[in-house]
Design a protein that fits this description.
alpha/beta; 9-stranded mixed sheet; two-stranded antiparallel ribbon; 22 helices; 41% helix; 11% strand; globular; disordered N terminus
Length: 521
């Protein structure tokens, strides 16, 4: 464990959240609506199961996590859920849980999701253990993280490409959209994912609609009459969907870094890149205060200066001391991940400075941090599951719409406006997916009768803009805590006692902040 657990915590959550804006895509008619609050009454065998909590030594999926999961304070279990809720007597899926039992008498469980899609809630709990052990919330609540379908220790796993193929750039690459330029490439991706995931049924049941239903089974088997939940980034979608689907089963829901519920997938992606550009502009202005700024003395020229630095990598990736190569795609993922938190801006400036001098190692480290890649080559966030979930969540754009979106992003975020990202023709990675999505747009509608929720929204959030947090609080008719700062996520991430106290009072005593409540990072 690092000496500063907050650092590991921030990297874990931001790494998981970092893929949230990658795949907010689309198309087709929704397969079936979410269940009403009584629709799961026939799931008796699942709702009545008892959890077998054991040590976590055998549940880690990487060497780095193995050290954390060996902590005897942690307990692990698995929840059985239907693979397909339309066929509850059929194949089963298993959702991995990790918990820190309450230090005092437990009043219930706090269920956690770190974002993604692709983030591991079990790893989140293990990596943040010292922070939770010091938290008043963990004195009264069991802290429980779960790995959604396809992720971490949950089964069946969803696999399209190996970690080694992602390292080598042999998987679909992401700039402003994926580098898929034909129906054939989209078909190859869908076939690879179906084959690697053990069949089409495993692949097409990964969407958020099913994850929300899994959460209700978790709530029941954890022994809670009502759900207490904390979700970051994409995890806010899950929390809001749960509230809309099971309003009478909600005790408290905290949504930190909320995804806007009133934008289409493509509109949200555009807003995310606009936010990243705003933070890059801020970074460039700060860098310009130094006489030797790698981006130059004029912040208005920083986009062009960035293009000059990275242009050679379009044709020739840069070697690194570890034997891997750094591509133009890797550079922009590294920069994007560094923009998630103002605390990491110096790392971005340093990595660009080193890259211009011929050393690609620092930028590769930023790129790896984006994916929460560990030293042994394991990806802490799951790009394959990210694709699978988003392909089952959102309507799919036509090639014309995808091409137009790439160009719109280039206009709104000129730091990304290089031909390899915005020129040519683009196809959706979901174009050939073997089933239609199970959500409609807007994905949150007709929300009535839920207890008051709490949205935490940072004014300078680079990926889930503050306007989205306002829209989420309005849609749920809940409370909003506005946080001044430039970071994605705030609770326990930003070191703000103000934020932590507001969330603590809400989670423990259901005390909502006053209207216009404000904190800062």
């Amino acid at each position: 464990m690092r000496s500063d657990p907050r650092s590991r915590y921030r990297e874990t959550v931001l790494g998981a959240a970092a893929t949230a804006f990658l795949l907010l895509l689309a198309g087709c008619t929704p397969a079936s609506p979410p269940p009403d609050s009584g629709a799961d009454a026939d799931l008796g065998a699942y709702l009545g199961q008892e959890l077998d909590w054991v040590g976590c030594e055998d549940t880690a999926t990487s060497k780095a996590d193995a050290k954390l999961f060996a902590n005897p304070a942690l307990q692990c279990a698995s929840v059985e859920v239907p693979l397909d809720y339309d066929k509850p007597e059929g194949k089963k899926a298993h959702i991995a849980l990790t918990r820190l039992p309450a230090a005092g008498e437990a009043e219930g469980s706090l269920l956690l999701n770190p974002g993604g899609p692709g983030g591991s809630g079990t790893s989140l709990v293990a990596s943040t253990l010292p922070l939770w052990q010091a938290s008043p919330v963990a004195k009264r609540f069991d802290i429980v993280g779960f790995d959604p379908r396809g992720i971490g220790s949950s089964t069946p796993p969803l696999d399209c490409y190996t970690d080694e193929q992602y390292d080598a750039g042999d998987a679909p690459r992401f700039g402003v959209v994926y580098d898929i330029t034909s129906t054939g490439e989209a078909t190859e991706l869908a076939e690879r994912c179906a084959d690697g995931s053990g069949g089409i049924a495993n692949l097409v049941n990964a969407g958020s609609t099913n994850v929300v239903r899994d959460m209700d089974i978790m709530r029941e088997v954890l022994g809670d009459d009502q759900l207490t939940y904390l979700g970051y980034s994409y995890g806010t979608e899950l929390g809001a969907m749960y509230a809309a689907t099971y309003p009478e089963k909600v005790r408290a829901i905290v949504l930190d870094g909320a995804v806007s519920p009133d934008l289409t997938a493509s509109e949200f992606r555009l807003s995310s890149f606009t936010g990243l550009q705003a933070r890059f502009d801020d970074l460039a202005a700060r860098c310009a205060e130094s006489p030797d700024c790698v981006l130059g003395p004029d912040p208005a020229a920083a986009n062009d200066r960035l293009h000059e630095i990275v242009q050679p990598l379009i044709e020739t990736p840069a070697p690194t001391t570890g034997g891997r190569e750094l591509s133009i795609w890797d550079v922009y993922l590294g920069i994007s991940g560094g923009l998630y938190s103002e605390k990491k801006w110096p790392d971005v400036i340093s990595a660009l400075t080193a890259l211009e001098a011929g050393n690609a190692d620092e930028m590769l480290a930023l790129r790896d941090s984006f994916f929460a890649r560990t030293a042994d080559g394991a990806y802490g966030t799951d790009p394959d599951t990210n694709i699978a979930v988003r392909c089952m969540d959102s309507p799919r754009p036509t090639p014309e719409e995808q091409t137009a979106l790439a160009r719109k992003i280039g206009e709104a975020a000129p730091m990304f406006d290089i031909d390899v990202f915005t020129a040519g023709n683009h196809h959706s990675e979901c174009e050939a997916w073997p089933a239609p999505p199970t959500r409609d747009e807007p994905w949150l509608a007709d929300v009535e009768g839920i207890p008051e929720t709490l949205v935490v929204s940072v004014t300078g959030d680079p990926v889930t803009p503050h306007e989205g947090g306002i829209a989420m609080a309005r849609a749920l008719d809940g409370s909003l805590l506005t946080v001044d700062g430039k970071q994605h996520g705030a609770y326990l991430l930003g070191g703000s006692k103000c934020v932590d106290d507001v969330v603590k009072k809400y989670l423990l005593d259901l005390e909502s902040p006053p209207t216009d409540a404000r904190c800062s990072l």
